[in-house]
């Protein structure tokens, strides 16, 4: 079985992204390219990364009015990414139009509450300081808007899955036991995230910043 880990290749350097992907390719199930990579390398860079032969998760976290998001996604259609992200807080119409604009085989998933935020951060933007409540509410919105799934931390994924049995659940903010947390606030281990109901895990720095990224990916795979 291929591993359910997508490695986040957060670098603007195409050559480095390619080298990393090639090194870890037998121990991950896909690659995630985000804003840092896309701003530097654009669609041509994504095409080049697709040559590595792994599914591509294009994480651009769209959040705008429905027309703008739909047109942006239409512009990405030729890339046929396996997965695309939008922010759930863009609202129902934006989610519906994002799904309608995406290629048929692309999963559209909505970020509920970034894993870099905690209860205090919710308060500071005027929301109830309860990550579970926020994630479950937005999971329900994503489900009813007809998209494919959501992004949340491993701390809420079990509650989110209870409200959407066959949803697709992406869990970033994943750290091996004793791993360096960095800017993430809601973190769990890879094993705990899968046990709680994650469909796939997104793991970046624990693999890409390791002295030996291949060994790091293999060690994570061995815990799953
Ligand atoms: O949508 C995401 O992938 C995402 C959502 C979220 O809530 N938190 C989060 O960390 N991510 C992404 O997941 C990756 C996590 O990277 P590491 O913290 O290095 O493992 C980054 O590429 C983030 O952009």
Label this structure with key terms:
TIM Barrel, eight-stranded parallel barrel, 10 helices, globular, binds orotidine-5'-monophosphate, RibuloseP-bd_barrel
Instruction: Write down the CATH topology.
Output: TIM Barrel
- Name of the CATH superfamily: Aldolase class I
- Molecular shape: globular
How much helicity do the residues have?
Answer: 40-55%
Bound small molecules, deduplicated: orotidine-5'-monophosphate
Can you give the mean pLDDT?
97
Instruction: Report the biggest beta sheet as strand number plus sense, adding barrel if it closes.
Output: 8 strands, parallel, barrel
- Cα gyration radius (Å): 17 Å
Side by side, the strands of the main sheet go: 1-2-3-4-5-6-7-8
- What's the quaternary structure here? single chain
CATH architecture: Alpha-Beta Barrel
Instruction: Determine and state the CATH class.
Output: Alpha Beta
- Structural class determined from secondary elements: alpha/beta
Unreliable stretches covering 5 or more consecutive residues: none
């Amino acid at each position: 079985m291929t591993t359910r880990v997508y490695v986040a290749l957060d670098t603007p350097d195409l050559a480095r992204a390619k080298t990393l992907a090639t090194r870890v390719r037998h121990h991950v199930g896909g690659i995630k390219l985000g804003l840092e990579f896309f701003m530097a390398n654009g669609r041509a860079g994504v095409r080049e990364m697709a040559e590595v032969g792994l599914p591509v998760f294009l994480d651009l976290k769209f959040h705008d009015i429905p027309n703008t998001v739909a047109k942006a996604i239409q512009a990405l259609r030729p890339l046929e990414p396996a997965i695309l992200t939008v922010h759930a807080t863009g609202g129902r119409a934006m989610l519906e139009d994002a799904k309608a604009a995406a290629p048929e085989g692309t999963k559209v998933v909505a970020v509920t509450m970034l894993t870099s935020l905690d209860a205090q951060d919710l308060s500071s933007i005027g929301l109830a300081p309860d990550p579970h409540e926020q994630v479950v509410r937005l999971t329900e919105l994503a489900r009813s808007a007809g998209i494919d799934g959501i992004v949340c931390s491993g701390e809420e994924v079990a509650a989110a899955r209870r409200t959407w049995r066959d949803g697709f659940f992406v869990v970033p903010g994943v750290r091996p036991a004793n791993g360096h947390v960095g800017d993430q606030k809601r973190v769990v281990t890879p094993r705990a995230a899968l046990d709680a109901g994650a469909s796939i895990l997104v793991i970046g720095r624990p693999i890409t910043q390791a002295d030996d990224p291949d060994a790091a990916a293999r060690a994570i795979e061995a815990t799953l």
